[in-house]
Design goal:
This protein has 429 residues and is of the alpha/beta class. It is 22% helix and 31% strand. It is globular and about 65 Å long.
Length: 429
């Protein structure tokens, strides 16, 4: 790992409690204390060219308390760079050759200790949400010693959740996976003793699809899912591979922080959690089928109830998060269909590894339900084939027809040969 630094940077904040935890990136093991602290402008919008550079920027912030926005270069286009410069940030590329800052268009004084996150942009163009290391640190109780895998894109909320856990909790070591290692991460994890891993449902589905046997060789004791709707099928598949691991799912966002944590192996959360108030804990409610969260972990300026934009349904005493309000609901001839519910039915089929459900224009009805699926390979060592023939489209339609009202049954199902994934480890669902 090479991260250029012009020399030591004097600390202005106490060293975090996890400073002696091990950090492995690019195959090199260091401690947080040994990571370089590059001299960055203040305030800076850092575009890190690798996970190593992102960790160095996080370490610099922890030591100096400077104002920082951290991202990968690919998530910040030219228009966003101009916006950041107008907002007073020195847009700074951090790579093996050192730091490369650009002077802000409108210089201003820094806001000490401020961390900025870019939202995922699932509802449009990414926006900035303000936090601090303290508001990003939601695990505060003593934890059993773990070595965590961090596959997330640097600077995302999920990335900061794993990074702050390692920074603030002794015994929480970190193995960071670069994008070019994602296909083979189980081998990296096994080599470095990873026993805890956090990822999106798409991340876990893709790993199971590509090489379930390699995944089973990783001695995982803690498995965490988040970032997308978590359905029963993926929880059950992971339980089959890791029968003794604790499997948790977390609802978290840049705006309201980590707000829901479920450990019982079931999709959704108990309906009696709604409107329950307890000091230091988020309050969950539902308005017009939308999840509303009042959270102590909220971003700057987001106190009070926050409408999340996520659609929920209450089924058999559980509150299920099915997807985004603006994309989950499909109007078929006046009847409302939840794309998330249909997706859950498809992924419940034993040979469907992944599914995406959308609406398509149709005569008379206005919209009809269509889907794309990736099939589990018959031979785990071979990729799935679109012409595998089992099950065919008609068989999947019948599967849905047995479990859904007629207007919700997909009328077209296309088979893909690879699970699509974005840099955020999410599918575009």
């Amino acid at each position: 790992m090479t991260v250029a630094t012009p020399g030591p940077v004097a600390a202005t904040h106490p060293e975090p409690a996890g400073v002696d935890n091990r950090v492995v990136v690019g195959g090199v093991a260091l401690t947080w204390r040994e990571l370089p602290t590059p001299a960055l402008p203040d305030p800076a919008a850092v575009l890190a060219h690798s996970a190593a550079h992102a960790l160095a920027a996080a370490r610099q912030h922890a030591v100096r308390g400077t104002e920082l926005l951290l991202s990968t270069a690919s998530r910040v286009d030219a228009a966003m760079r101009a916006d950041l410069s107008e907002a007073g940030f020195a847009v700074t590329v951090l790579d093996d050759d050192g730091t490369h800052p650009s002077a802000p268009a409108r210089p201003r004084a820094a806001d000490p200790g401020r961390l900025w996150l870019l939202t995922s942009g699932s509802t449009g163009r990414p926006k900035r949400v303000g936090h601090t290391l303290d508001t990003l640190t939601t695990v505060r109780a003593d934890q059993p010693e773990r070595t965590w895998l961090c596959p997330y894109a640097p600077g995302t909320y999920a990335w900061w959740q794993v990074v702050t856990l390692s920074l603030t909790q002794p015994g929480q070591h970190l193995v960071v996976v670069e994008p070019d290692e994602l296909d083979d991460w189980p081998a990296v994890a096994a080599a470095h003793g990873v026993d805890a891993a956090s990822g999106t449902p798409t991340f876990w589905r893709r790993t199971l699809y590509r090489d379930a046997a390699a995944l089973a060789r990783v001695p995982l004791r803690q498995i965490t899912l988040g970032g997308e709707p978590v359905d029963q099928a993926i929880l059950d598949q992971l339980r089959d591979v890791f029968p003794t691991a604790r499997i948790s799912w977390i609802y978290a966002s840049s705006e309201v922080g980590a707000s829901i944590v479920v450990h019982d192996g079931r999709a959704g959360f108990p309906v009696d959690w709604l409107d329950r108030q307890a000091p230091g804990r988020p309050t969950l409610s539902v308005r017009d089928d939308e999840l509303v969260v009042t959270s102590p972990f909220h971003g700057a300026g987001l106190a009070g109830p926050v409408r999340t934009g996520d659609r929920v349904q209450v089924v058999d005493g559980r509150v299920l998060i099915t997807g985004r309000l603006d994309s989950d609901e499909i109007n078929v001839g006046g009847s409302k269909v939840s794309a998330g519910v249909v997706r859950g039915v498809l992924t419940g089929h034993p040979t469907v590894a992944w599914a995406r459900v959308t609406g398509r224009r149709a005569p008379v009805l206005g919209r009809m339900v269509v889907a794309e699926v990736v099939l589990t390979p018959a031979d785990p060592s071979e990729p799935a084939s679109a012409d595998a023939g089992v099950p065919d489209e008609a068989a999947l339609v019948r599967w849905c027809a047995d479990r859904l009202p007629d207007h919700a049954v997909p009328r077209r199902i296309r088979v893909l040969t690879e699970i699509p994934v974005k840099e955020t480890l999410k599918s575009d669902v």
